[in-house]
């Protein structure tokens, strides 16, 4: 599974670029949202998930938000 970052020790938000590493990685895997766009897994941090909840639920491409 692609975590949106370099290797298994980093996750990167596909919207704002925020990164989760080290001890924060386990928490991010629970709190962050992920989806599939163009056949790849895209992670969205908890802040961006709340900000764009309607667009995510409406299954709009991230290009729209």
Please name the defining characteristics of this protein:
two-stranded antiparallel sheet, alpha+beta, 4 strands, 3 helices, 65 residues
Structure description:
The longest helix is centred in the middle third of the chain and has 8 residues, at 24-31. The mean pLDDT is 81. A two-stranded antiparallel sheet has the order 1-2. Strands 3-4 form a two-stranded antiparallel sheet. Helices cover 29% and strands 25% of the residues. The chain has helices at residues 24-31, 46-51, 53-57, and strands at 10-12, 19-21, 33-37, 40-44. The protein has 3 helices and 4 strands. The chain is an alpha+beta fold and 65 residues long. The chain starts with 9 loop residues before the first strand and ends in an 8-residue tail after the last helix.
Number of strands: 4
**Main sheet: strands, sense, barrel:** 2 strands, antiparallel
Average pLDDT confidence is 81
- Class inferred from helices and paired strands: alpha+beta
Binned, the helix content reads 25-40%
Sequence of strands across the biggest β-sheet? 1-2
Strand content: 15-25%
């Amino acid at each position: 599974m692609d975590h949106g970052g370099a290797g298994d020790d980093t996750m990167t938000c596909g919207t704002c670029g925020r990164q989760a590493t080290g001890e924060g990685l386990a928490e991010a895997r629970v709190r962050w949202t992920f989806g599939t766009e163009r056949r790849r897994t895209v992670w969205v941090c908890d802040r961006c998930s709340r900000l764009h909840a309607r667009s995510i639920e409406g299954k709009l491409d991230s290009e729209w938000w």
